[in-house]
Structure formats: C-alpha cells, structure tokens
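Is iron/sulfur cluster placement plausible here? Inputs below.
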Amino acid sequence: MSGARQAQIRVSEIFGPTIQGEGVLIGLPTVFVRTGGCDYRCSWCDSLHAVDSEYRDQWLPMTVDGIWADVTRLSRGKPLMVSLSGGNPAIQPLGGLIAHGHAQGYKFALETQGSVTKEWFADLDVLVLSPKPPSSGMATDWDAFEDCLRLAGNGPAIALKIVVFDDRDYAYAREASARYPDLSVYLQPGNHTPPPPDDDDARVDIDGIMDRMLWLVDKVTEDRWFEARVLPQLHVLLWGNKRGV
Ligand SMILES: C[S@@+](CC[C@H](N)C(=O)[O-])C[C@H]1O[C@@H](n2cnc3c(N)ncnc32)[C@H](O)[C@@H]1O
Ligand SMILES: Nc1nc2[nH]cc(C(=O)O)c2c(=O)[nH]1
Ligand code: SF4
Ligand SMILES: [Mg+2]
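Reply from A.M.:
I modeled the complex. Tokens:
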C-alpha cells in the first residue's frame, strides 16, 4: 500500500448525503468529510467543534480506507461530489484520498480560507477559497492565498466565497474580488448565531440572516456589481444550526 493511502487524516465528522448549502455548488447532493483542526479562530466560526482543540478528543485519526468505507456506505457506492471541509482541511494529507476516490468516479470540492496550500490542490475538481473579512478578527496573508492559486493551477474550478456581516466586510469582499477578477465570487450573509459546539438545536437568527441577505442584494445592485452572486447558507435556512446536515 502506498504511503498516501496510510497517511493519518484527522476527522471530525463524515455525514451525508445532504445538499451543498453554500456557494458555487449550492443544491448539489454531497457527502461531507470534515477534518479536525484549524490555523484560524474566526470570531463567528460555525464549526468550532472541528476547530477548538477542546474538542480534539472527538477527532479520529483515520486512513484513506477508513474514510472511504464511510463515504461509500453513505453514498451506497454511487459516485458523487465529496465536500472536504473543516476546520482547515488544507492542513491534512488529503492527496491519497482524492486519488483513491477519483479512481472510482467520485469528485472532490475543498473549502479553505487560503492560508495553507498543498500540491494536491491541483487534483481537486473544485476549490472554494474563502478569505476572511475584518469581522472574523483574522488577517489575510495574500501571499499565502496566491500560493493556493498557483499550486491549484488549471486543475480545479476555483471560486471565491466571502462571508459578509457589515460594510467593512463588504468593502473587503470588493477588494478581494478586484484582486482576482477572473474568479467567480459568492457573497454569503453571516450567521450571527453560530451553534455552540455542544448544542445541535441551538436557535438560529433567520430574521437577521434574511435582513443581511436583503441588504447585500441592495448593495450589489446599487454598486452595479453585476458579477457577484449573493446566496444564503441554504442548509441553515432548512435546518438551522443542526450539525451533520
Ligand atoms: C466552517 S468553514 C470550514 C472551511 C474553512 N476553514 C473556511 O473557513 O473556508 C466553511 C465555510 O463556512 C463559513 N462560515 C463559518 N462560520 C460562518 C458564519 N457564522 N456565518 C456564515 N458563514 C460562516 C466560512 O467562511 C467558510 O466559507
Ligand atoms: N449542507 C451543508 N453545506 C455546507 N457548506 C459548507 C459547509 C461547511 O460547514 O463547511 C456545510 C455544511 O456543514 N452543510
Ligand atoms: S477558518 Fe473556517 S473553520 Fe477555521 S475558524 Fe474560520 S470559519 Fe472556522
Ligand atoms: Mg458549516
């Protein structure tokens, strides 16, 4: 067995099929592989159970074969799009998983903030880069971000997805998009009520999300930013902050 097949990947949860709730693949049936651990700490992160080391005892080191047994069981052996998220999945050794799945007709989309890059980005089908706006409390390292684009090359389709809570975030999204005019850009209203990691049924402020959604639509139309796409987190509208959907 090759080294890549035996690499240990830290997994927080594997679930689905559900529909991709965000961005360029919205509505597409998918199985999620959510890895554990992140180099960021966004103030409003909705997946702290896969970020905060307090939850690391819930993360399992898994091999490609172990993950693949779950993915094929959930998809009942029918190839589909696998969504790699986290935490930051870019810090995990995912190249072997992607090669193994591709050989069986599956596709792979990766969600990452663009702070860490890997050679295997070039093997992805879809790369979603989600640089973080000021409200997150994180600073963007644009050199690291550009490394992601460079290593991905012409391999995957690449899209920008930027969370927007307020005017400063919106200005950041405009700047980020202006830097990379060839990338399609998706604006996502922020959820002010991310789930506490231990509580699946936490209330979600749908009215607030809808208000920001309407505000964002006004902003892009007033600015004649006609390349931007504005989309809510569909899974949050459907299932609130529930985990595993
Ligand atoms: C949980 S992150 C995991 C992948 C990677 N760390 C990243 O941030 O792209 C997946 C997506 O959820 C978004 N997200 C996280 N918390 C959110 C919130 N409270 N409201 C809206 N989107 C959020 C992130 O910006 C990212 O686009
Ligand atoms: N349905 C669904 N769509 C999603 N898109 C991005 C998600 C994520 O947490 O990375 C996510 C998620 O957790 N569920
Ligand atoms: S980068 Fe992604 S997973 Fe990490 S803290 Fe921010 S939103 Fe959460
Ligand atoms: Mg999520």
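Short version: The two ends are 33 Å apart (CA to CA).
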